[in-house]
Design a protein that fits this description.
The chain contains 5 helices and 16 strands. It is α+β, with helices and mostly antiparallel strands. The longest helix has 19 residues.
Length: about 290
């Protein structure tokens, strides 16, 4: 059972919509800064931003206090990814590893490009369709080096440790063997997903080949170091909110009451805020073969 829970504010698919995270005491926390990177030895936490098969581009709001999850906005309009044939929405549970940051001031030696200013992204390949705001524990299997409009944008491949097949997956070659075509589909999706919006295809380092588990973990550890420098004010975050409740050496640390005040200033949770009935969307569990 997760130690964390989530709370929605305002209605989904609106500009005001937010998902805040809470700890086991029901206190508001930042999913970016307050959830530990490691869940256990060799197991990482993942913040689920986008459930598999869905289209709304949700993400941790790095510039908002407490960094809630919200829908990305471009030119005043909510963003959705297209159904890129033959796929439906995102083809994995998509999210981020907390306490990581791809530093835009650091040129990556592998890609020659600077970081994209976000926590490192994760594609979770298990059979369960996760919920937005869910915190899961994942086993890292490999990584893809995407270059998005000139920025380094690593994509970690991982599997939920609670997945029935998790024991069979220990490195990227297991994905190739047990899910033939899935990694190729992943590259294809990331290469083309912005094309319907009039953008060029994305590029990749290493000729779009996936690197293995050990390589991936080293990249994650390096982004954790950049995050540490960010949250302790050794690096200028230039607008990123580092407000947190747990990082003892951070000058941005606040008490739980200050965190609650941030949330209390917003519209109430959806069920009491809406004048229209809210739609409850239930996700069936699908297996990706």
């Amino acid at each position: 059972m997760s130690r964390f829970s989530s709370e929605e504010r305002s209605a989904p698919f609106t500009l005001e919509y937010r998902v805040f995270l809470k700890n086991e005491k029901g206190q508001y926390i930042s999913p970016f800064h307050d959830i530990p990177m490691y869940a256990d030895k060799d197991v990482f936490h993942m913040v689920v931003e986008v459930p598999r098969w869905s289209n709304a581009k949700m993400e941790i709001a790095t510039k908002d206090p407490l960094n809630p999850i919200k829908q990305d906005v471009k030119k005043g309009k909510l963003r959705y990814v297209a159904n890129l044939f033959p796929y439906k929405g995102y083809i994995w549970n998509y999210g981020a590893i907390p306490q990581t940051w791809e530093d835009p001031g650091h040129s990556d030696k592998h890609t020659g490009c600077c970081g994209d200013n976000d926590p490192i992204d994760v594609c979770e390949i298990g059979s369960k369709v996760c919920a937005r705001g869910e915190i899961i524990r994942v086993k890292v299997l490999g990584i893809l080096a995407m270059i998005d409009e000139g920025e380094t944008d690593w994509k970690v491949i991982a599997i939920n440790v609670d997945d029935p097949d998790a024991a069979n997956y220990n490195d990227i070659n297991d994905v190739k063997r047990l899910k033939p075509g899935y990694l190729e589909a992943t590259v294809d999706w990331f290469r083309r997903y912005k094309v319907p919006d009039g953008k060029p295809e994305n590029e990749f380092a290493f000729n779009a080949e996936f690197k293995d588990k050990d390589f991936a973990i080293n990249i994650i550890k390096s982004t954790h170091d950049y995050w540490k420098a960010l949250v302790t004010k050794k690096t200028d975050g230039k607008g990123i909110s580092c407000m947190n409740t747990t990082v003892s050496e951070s000058p941005f640390r606040c008490d739980p009451d200050a965190a609650r005040a941030i949330v209390d200033a917003l519209p109430p949770p959806c069920e009491s805020a809406c004048t229209l009935p809210c739609t409850v969307v239930s996700y069936s569990h699908h297996s990706v073969q």
